[in-house]
Amino acid sequence: MAPLDGNDVDDDDDIDAYINTGACSQDMYMPPMDEQAFRTHGDQLGRPPTVTKQRLVFTGLSQDTPPEAGNPAQVKPATVFSPNTLRKTIIGEPPKLTPATSEAPAPEAPPSAPPAPPVGQVKKARKRGPKKGASSSQPAPKRIRADDMVPPTPDGLPRCHEAGKPILPPDMEHLASGPMLPLQNTINYLESVLLKEKDPNYPAFSVKVPSDQNFVNEDPADIFFIAFEDVFNLFHSKRLDYNLVRLYAINLQMKINRERPRHIAVEDPYYMRDSQLQDGSRTRTKAVRYLQNFMLMYKRATPFFCLPFPSKDKYCTLIVLDPKWSLAQYFDSSSTTTKKDYKRIRGVLDEAILGYSKNGGTFDKNGQYIRPDTKKPGFKHVIDFPCIKQPAGSIKEAFYVLHHLKGFVEDAEMMSLPPKMTYYVVFEGRVPGVYEEWEECKKQVHKFSGNCYKGYPTRHEAVAKWRAHQANKSKMKTFLVLSLLLTIVAAVLYFILV
After folding, report:
1. Which residues are CB-contacts of 105 (< 8 A; sequence separation ≥ 6)?
2. C-alpha span between 240 and 182 (Å, rounded)
3. Main-chain phi, psi angles of 266, to 5 degrees
4. Which of 69, 86, 87, 123 is deepest in the core (most CB within 10 A)?
5. What confidence tens digit (pLDDT) does each residue in 399-415 have?
6. 333-to-269, 272, 404 alpha-carbon distances in Å
7. One domain for residues 191 and 309
8. Strand (E) or helix (H) holding 453
9. CA quadruple 114, 115, 119, 121: dihedral positive or negative?
10. Which domain holds residue 453?
């Protein structure tokens, strides 16, 4: 394998963010992408690729300038494009071998020490000339080869993904569950296609945010990318990329909208990155407006789930919000004893609930909290809420956050503030049916003679009662029709016989 080019080394000690713009959808596709796909105008959250879009490992000749036939001087060594972030700077050159011996020249023997001066004679100091450079005969520092730069982890697993190779080794495939293996096979197929192209596309999935689900879908947040290396980190339980967390959150909210509409809600974490929430910034203003509208849209939802990135945009935290009681509970799985400040995130949440209260948001009795410093509505922030902690030095906080989030969504009774759900069935009214809002139910039965309605705790029970009522009503109509027909037949027979 050819050596790495120093310009392609990423030593920021973080997950590569060459595709980091944000969001998620139920479907993923990979259309042809070019530099225009990584839009940078107005995108304060992502940054475009700084080197090249060929983020794959190639061997052979350089793809920039093909060599001329019969001219070996034109041959250039291959350039290795790798998304790995753990490789360090390459230093030095390998020792050159002489054509005659094909062996590395031996270093010169150190000069022998000068003889000691005679007794009683003082040695005069000698002026030293400028220090000469290192002898050309000395061997140069050893160059770190690409194969040796990233040693495997203590358990033998690779540290980065190499294009064209499976994400999981064969001895670990039996541990894969669900769609993991199909996803791995899809990535391998796409990489095999990219490696054959002269000008390959980005090795990433393109994800489009749905426009009718109350997500952040304005340009440039409507499309984001999941790199193949991010999937590798997911399979090997490494630190999850921001885009994967957003993908999971939005996909979960879409399931909630289909199965349990407006019971609980998971907000889109596109704006919730601490580094972008400075006072007076446009992102902060947009974040406040989005959270405010989200809480107003899901008035009946309790609780809300927020997934901010409070520390260097790398560490994820789960925040459970209950606007009706002005309560914000922070589930921080970090085992460090140093408490996070969450200053910017707390400010955004307080501004959002202030707008929520001014635009028709409702609170339970004595549930509205007035901040003592500003005398305005705000959240009561419980930053050290007890939760499962991760081991010291772990970088899997996003897995803990998503674990807590999934548990809360699947079983709302685990929450300290369970949701209060009531559905109303109007049996007799202006427009009979099932209603989620009391105001809508009231419109159908108010001043309606002979009205009949009832409330139920779950939608399933309400729909079942409504269907049973419709079935009984249909049977009653059938019985009345048959009774009327029998009466008519009896009357006709009576007149005929008489």
Report:
1. 98, 137
2. 20
3. -120, 120
4. 87
5. 888 888 887 777 654 44
6. 18, 18, 10
7. no
8. strand 452-456
9. negative
10. 423-497
Q: Indicate the angle between helix axes 282-297 and 343-358, nearest 10 degrees.
A: 50
In terms of domains, do 43 and 187 share one? yes
Tens-digit pLDDT profile for residues 217-248: 888 888 888 888 888 888 888 888 888 888 88
488 belongs to a structural domain: yes
* Cα 478 to Cα 471: distance, rounded to the nearest angstrom: 11
Q: Which two tokens stand for residue 233?
A: 């980190």
The residue with tokens 């609930």 is: 353
Query: Model-level pTM greater than 0.70?
Result: no
Same domain membership, residue 486 and residue 363: no
Residues facing residue 329 across a β-bridge: 320, 382
DSSP helix/strand/coil, 130:
coil
The count of residues in the chain is 498
Token reading at 409? 């969504």
Whether 64 and 150 map to the same domain: the answer is yes
Residue 51: which pLDDT band, with cuts at 50, 70 and 90? very low
SS3 29: strand
| Cis, peptide link before residue 303, omega less than 30° from 0 | yes
Looking at the fold, whether 307 and 398 belong to one and the same domain comes out as yes
pLDDT tens, position by position, 311-327: 666 778 888 888 888 88
The three-class DSSP label of residue 325 is: helix
Q: Specify the number of domains making up the chain.
A: 3
Residue 134 in any domain: the answer is no
Secondary structure class of 91 (helix, strand, coil): coil
Order of strands, sheet of 28-29, starting from the edge strand that comes earlier in the sequence? 28-29, 204-208, 223-227
Strand partners, 433: 426
Reading the block at residue 34, the tokens are 């070019």
Query: Comparing C-alpha atoms, which of 354, 364, 214 is closest to residue 294?
Result: 214
Three-state secondary structure call for residue 380: strand
In a domain, 126, yes or no: no
